[in-house]
Amino acid sequence: MRNCNYTSYNEIVSFGTITEEKNNPAKSTLNAITGRIATSYIQYLNNFPSLEGKSKSDILKNETSERAALQLCYSSETKSFKFIRGKIFDIQPDELKAFCPYCLLNKPKTLDHYIGQTEFPEYSILQRNLIPCCFDCNNNKGEQWRKDKKRRFIHFYNDTFLTNRFLHGSLIYHRGEIVPRIDFCLMKPAAMSVSDFRIVKFHFKDLHLLQEYNTRANALVSSEIAVITDSYHGGATIDQIIASLTSRANALSADFGINYWSAVMYETLANNNRLIRSL
Question: Which end of the chain is less crowded, N or C, counting CB atoms within 10 A of the terminal residue's CB?
């Protein structure tokens, strides 16, 4: 896992530009609340942790026209927002153009509102709130970004803890089975705070990532072990095989982050003494 790239556009200016491209009555409605939106944006951009405990939107429930106009800024695109939306995808590194940052399994084809539009419509087109995402993660996450005033998902612009290693794997040998199975787990690193690790655990739980990673990895393990065995019988030494597996793990980690499931899989194969001794 790794952080997304964030657009460099001025968020408040962008809101004003999009507002001016709207037709009345939406344009008048949005112009009337521009100052309030700017205040909301500043809180998100400068004091994001405070939103975790925020009880309600700055746009009240009875302000139905205002809430609808804000949400339509996203669903009914103006020229400027269509450009911004495309730019959010375009500026991502190649790895995150191909794989959703939430799961690193599927292609990101939509934008996730980290803080949902229904609860906080003022953030409907805030670029800092729009994260490239696959349909599966978008559906599984929905609008539940927090529970009991505690965040449940990694924010791929704001969170800085992804350089900590928390995803690990082990090979499990079941009686009667020739090929071992890989089993992923989460472990809190010493340098990571309890609150940050809690977010990671909820993220993995709500998106079913450990199960998904196990499924993907175990579909590959038998063929990878076959390649390792063929290499050994073809003349490669055990040290060369370990070096090759470690090199693949390191290359994937460099591209996708140290918690990328495929990198962890190769590291697990390289470090398993029982597997290496069986060659």
Answer: C
